[in-house]
Each structure stands twice: as structure tokens, then as C-alpha cells.
């Protein structure tokens, strides 16, 4: 089969024009064309009133070999790569021990699933509740301000990605096509098949809930075990010269599980676990992350700015954006986790702190568009010295506590109109853009919520973004604080080959919490890599 890339057609092209484009590109007759399928469909909206669809097609002809030779120097005609997933190992009939996966976000979910598919019967432990009970707790917090610190946006089956836009694209290098395995498993679990071919696939929260349940059931069917409300409170190590070997874990209930193989897929908000691992001497280092606000506009403003007269076209859907500005003070400000047609949600996991995040349903039909507007920060901004490896956690907590105070200490979030923020004055009420954050907002001056360098950077960036998207810095757009959980503030270092901790054998740091992923797709990919590494290590043991 041949893979054709960069096939361009008008937005409103007729279906038969796609086949005609194949025939013209390859200079073949209709009789020589056996079949073709759409592998990927994207769009070029740089000229918003003349949007072009961009196709990647897999094509079968009666003369594949001849065409490959004929188009040898054409980068847009190649052999279709073999993207089928191949398991690296198969468990022996008699397992001497079972691997443990801690955390059931996308990374832990795929680590557990692939281990189960290879016959290793993993034990998957999740500190939060199963996804439907967790959803009740999360909506209860949004409606009644009742925070369950173990069951919320951050903790519970499905991980933080469950309450997001459900984006399924990533910029990570993927030479082994693990992303295809992730997408195929999602489709088998009930995701729309279009995620296999649209350039920016997303699922949305409600669809993710059902999918996560189906994947959990698959782990059970394959002999694995999934246990909820099982927080890990201790790790047991055996000294082996200059390094250690994991020998087991202890749960909050007091139960001990003996194992030499543990995947650590705990997510970016498991601060208590980070602290415990650091105290036990596991190698951890601070890493950069970003902080800022959630900005909201009417979705129609973004649609008009991005798509012009094509706004509302069913193929295009609700418009998104990706923005970056390099500031005079050396900082970079960028948009993050953009949620078209979505809402801003309360994402706190600790009492007395306020955190924002964004969420969309599959339809993306809510009135507002939202995105985090964040400033990149480095360890030198929050670490007192080289030994202060957890300084980023304390930095995040301070900002979240300030936001809680400015919001009225009720889990309402502090909020300000963009026009007032740029002018340096306190806001009193909303204008055309009504903030969607629940439980609610408290209008104030956000200049106190972030360090001065971050406030200055965002004030410089917003007018710059206006030049790219008309209406972006409109006075009635709203800013809600504070966005701190953009990524993990630490990295639990691991070996590039074995994926095990640099100083604890059998401990496999994984996913976003360990500093090796960012988003659902990359976390799922890392989970597959971890499962493979654990399987290989177990067969060698």
C-alpha cells in the first residue's frame, strides 16, 4: 500500500474529487486504483476565507511497486509503514510475582492494559474512586464547594485528562507508532472512529468516562486487578551496593504488597507521594513548568478570527488557537490546553487552595472558548538552593493559597476583565463574556496572584496576541486565577534504556507526574513503553 501526503482540496470539495486527486497525483487510470482510505485529514486556515483541506491517504493499486520506483524521489509518495502494534513479550504460565501499577490516569491505564494483554496480570492501584463515583464527587465540588481531596479533577480513575478537552494529539516523537495503539484502543472502547484520521482529535469528558470503564473491564478480563481508594503510603527498598531494589509497597489501609516491579504513574498532583519518595532517597530533580490564568472569550469571536466566512463549517468545528510571545523581560507567554466551546473548572486537590483548568465535551457547544495563558518558569525561580528539589511544589501551593484568599476563601476563583487587568484596576462585574468557572468567581485585581515578572509578561503578551486573533485582548474577556498544574514540577529520573529509576531497580517512573509526558496521548504512549520495559525486566529476573 502507498501513502500519499500533502493532497490539497478546497474546504467544500465534492467526495469524488478525492479519488480524482489520487488518480492525478499517481497518473493512473481508475482501473488501476483498487482502493484508498483517509489516514489523516487536517486543514490550512492561514487564509481564513480560503481554507484548504490537507489529506494523507493510504492507496492500493495494481502497480504499487512500479509507482514506488517511479516516485522514488517524491517525498509525498512512500510505502505505507506497518503501524500494527507488536507485543515485545509474553508472560510465562507460572508468574513468580505480579507487577504493580500505581495510578490509573492515561499512563497507568495503558501500562496496566498492555501488561494484561501480555499475560502479566498486573495489580493496578488508584488512590481515587472509580470514574463514575469520582465524577459525582467532582461535580459536587463544583456545585456545593465540598472538596474530596482524594476524589476530584486530579485524583481518580482516568486521571486529570478525564476532565479536560480530551485532546488526542501530541508532538512527541513516535517512531514505533505507539500513538496508533492508543487511538485504536480508545476506538475499541467506544471513542468515535474519526479520532483515527482527523488532525486534532478530541473526545470530551462524558465519552472518556465510558471509555475508561471499558478499558478497566478489559484489564479484569485478561486476569489483571484494579483497586480503587488504595493510596500508596510507603515503598520498601532493599540496599544493593550503591543502588536499591524495590521489594514492595504499603497501602494507606496498612496492607503490604510484595513485588519487585512497580510502575509509578501517579500524575502531576500527587505531592504527598513526591515528598515521600524524596524522603526515601529516590532520585528526583526539579523541572520547569508554567503558571498563569484561564482566559475566556465568546467562541464566536475565536471562530470569526480564525475561520472568517467559514466559521461554523461542520468539518472545522469550533476554532482553536495556539499562541506564543517572547517578552522583553526574557519570559515566554503561551496558550496552553485550549478548550473550544468549553468551560473553566475548579481543579483543586488540597484544602484552602484554588486551581483552574479547562474542559470541553465532545460537541464543544458551550458559549465560551477558554485557554490557559501561562508564563514559563525555571527551577531558579522557585528553588532556594540545589537541595530544594521540591521547591516547585511549595511555589505552586503559595500561588493557590493566594488565589483562595482573593476568591473569598470559599473556593470561588479570583477573576478580572482583560481591560481592567491591562489598565491595572480592580474589576467589579462581568461584561459580554460571562465567566464559566464553577463554583463561582470573585472580581478583584489579579496582579497579586502571580510574581511581578509573570504579571508583566502577560500584560505584554495579550496585546501581541490581539494582533494574531482579533478580539483576543477585548476589554470584556475574562481572566480567572490561578493555573498552576500545567505539568509536574519535578522529574523522577530514569534510565533511558531500562526506564527504571536511576537508583532504585524495579521502580519505573512514568507519565506526566514523573516528568515524561504532557497530555492524554503522550501519557498513554509512555504507559505502553513502561509496560514493555517491565515485561522485559520481569522475564530477565
Q: Tell me the total number of β-strands.
A: 24
Spans of at least 5 consecutive residues with low confidence: none
Q: Biggest β-sheet, characterized? A: 7 strands, mixed
Radius of gyration: 24 Å
Class of secondary structure makeup: alpha/beta
Shape: globular
Helix content: 25-40%
Give me the oligomer status: single chain
Q: Biggest sheet, strands in spatial order? A: 14-15-18-13-21-19-20
User: How widely separated are the two ends?
Assistant: 41 Å
Counted by DSSP, the helix tally is 13
Strand composition percent: 15-25%
Mean pLDDT: 96
Please tell me about this protein's structure.
With 541 residues, this protein is α/β, with parallel strands linked by helices. Helices cover 28% and strands 25% of the residues. It is built from 13 helices and 24 strands. It has helices at residues 15-26, 64-70, 106-117, 131-144, 178-188, 205-221, 271-279, 299-307, 379-382, 391-406, 418-423, 452-466, 520-540, and strands spanning 2-10, 33-44, 52-61, 77-79, 100-102, 123-126, 225-228, 232-240, 243-251, 256-258, 262-264, 284-286, 289-298, 324-326, 332-339, 343-346, 356-359, 368-377, 413-417, 441-443, 478-483, 490-492, 504-505, 507-509. Strands 14-15-18-13-21-19-20 form a seven-stranded mixed β-sheet. α3 (106-117) crosses α13. The longest helix is centred in the last third of the chain and has 21 residues, at 520-540. The radius of gyration is 24 Å and the shape is globular.
